[in-house]
Every structure is written in structure tokens, then in C-alpha cells.
């Protein structure tokens, strides 16, 4: 089953870029990515640019509206993701707890939808 590990964190709580703590965090991400790849469960994964680069879109009353920034105004921002394929939720949670940001943010584990395509 495929799961997405959505990585949320509060930028105010993240290690500052260029510090030893930031380097340690990134080393943790590189190690996790290598482990997921070596275990044969990694489908995809990337970090996202900051919320200040986001554009949100919605359609209301037949009109397209766009706005700068993320749709939700929260302290924690979606900063990246992994898509993994594992046997079950328990396996996905074991990997999720190794995401470096879990110690100061939130990792949302969500199964991907599987749509049957018409023949």
C-alpha cells in the first residue's frame, strides 16, 4: 500500500540554516532518504520551497480565484513529503517516526487513493 508522509513544521522551531543543528537535521534527512531507497520502499520525496512562494487556487461561483500563500493560515507549514510503498500502516508509521522533523513538527501519514481506471 502507498502512503504519503507529509512533513509539517513551525519555521520558528526549525534549526537555522547554516548552523550545526541545521546540518545535523539535513544529514538525518539524507540518511532517511538513503534508508527508504535501500529498503526499496521509496516512491518519491522532496522538500518544498517556503510558503511565501505558494499560490493557492479555488473556483467560486464559476470564477477562478488565486491568492498568494498557502490556503491554511497555521503555524506549521507543509515543508516536504515522502511517498512510500509498504505493507501496512504500522510499517508506514515506523518510517514516519524516523523523519527528523518529527521531534519538533508533525508527520501526517495518509494512504494514497487507488482509482480503478475504466477498461
TrEMBL record:
UniProt feature coiled coil, ranges: none
Pfam families: YCII
YCII-related domain ranges (all copies): 1-113
Family: Belongs to the YciI family.
Protein name: YCII-related domain-containing protein
